[in-house]
Amino acid sequence: MKRRTGSRVPAMADVAALAKVSVPTVSRVVQGTVPVSEEKRNRVLAAIEELDYRPSAAARALAHGTSTIVGVFAAQASAYGYAATIEGIHDESRRNGWTVAVGLLDSRPDDDGTALQRALDPILTQRLVGAIVIGFDPIAFDTIEILRRRHRVVVAAGSLSDIAGIDQVHLDEYAGAYDATTSLLELGHRTVHHVAVPGSQRDTGRTGGWRAALRDAGVVDIPEPWHVSWDPATAREVALAMPADGSVTAVLCGNDEIAIGLMRGLGERGLRVPDDVSVIGFDDHPLSKMLTPSLSSVRLDFAALGARAAAVLAAGSSSPSTSAVEPRLLLRESVRSAPPR
Known about the structure:
The chain has 341 residues and is of the alpha/beta class. The protein has three domains: 12-55, Orthogonal Bundle (434 Repressor (Amino-terminal Domain)), CATH 1.10.260.40; 69-171 and 302-327, Response regulator (Rossmann fold, 3-Layer(aba) Sandwich), CATH 3.40.50.2300; 173-299, 3-Layer(aba) Sandwich (Rossmann fold), CATH 3.40.50.2300. Helices cover 40% and strands 16% of the residues. A six-stranded parallel β-sheet has the order 2-1-3-4-5-11, with helices on both faces. It has a six-stranded mixed β-sheet with strand order 7-6-8-9-10-12, sandwiched between helices. Helix 5 (80-95) links the parallel strand 1 (69-74) and strand 2. Helix 1 (12-19) packs across helix 3 (38-51) and helix 5 (80-95) packs parallel to helix 13 (302-315). The longest helix is centred in the first third of the chain and has 16 residues, at 80-95. The chain is elongated and about 85 Å long. Residues 56-60 have low confidence and may be disordered. One of its GO terms (molecular function) is DNA-binding transcription factor activity. This is LacI family transcriptional regulator. Residues 10-64 form the HTH lacI-type domain. Keywords: DNA-binding, Transcription, Transcription regulation.
């Protein structure tokens, strides 16, 4: 029979008092990171059960030598691609009876790694089923070596990395960018410019697919991409600084938010989309089709990416695997044939 502590939620001190141990001993048992004598450990687990102390699910998992917690690590969680990927991980994890703990990675230029470790520690002190790294930013890959020392790691990313011995699920960004660039060239545009988001891989990601399509089409002078931050305002600045000679007639943007910023800047200059400049974004943000003109985009199924990463973790294969989530090009009102010159 569970003992009640009145209306308040049981605290770690209540567990310690009932088990006749110190609070640090209870913490060590719950975290599972420091050895505790079997006799004390059993007393603590019995007290946790009796008081229904939270996180009691974690304590019961410790008692049975298993875990139900998946650690998910990402540079952010609010942007569309990140949020949709985490949602896919959560949905698939729930089907496996798991819960998801999200760690937001914190790193600064010239940081000695302390901030990154501080972001990891709250989750790494728990016993995990495994870890999923959302690898849309370089900082995410910095965590892999730390994580793989203690946990099975699955990487969910925009393109394959060269890290050996690890499960990888990726969006085929290269193919999506290649198809989008080719479609603009087929509409008669002599070249396609590119606004690149942070972390886009030169050879294997969105930038790589764009560059390869131009090269394969015989474009001799491939323009250098414009590099921006995740802030759409930086793409607006790109549009305001574009050459005024009419040489820019088609632009592939690294994501839809960047495309929106670019379109705003073009409008401020009196340039019309798509009459003067055709624009294609990436990700197929839910608002893309609501814009005027509606934004063409490469649809990436982030929820499927997250769900597949969790499924790979659940499968527990003894050998590393790789799999891709295919893109889909959606042409809307923001593209048209090249304007006459």
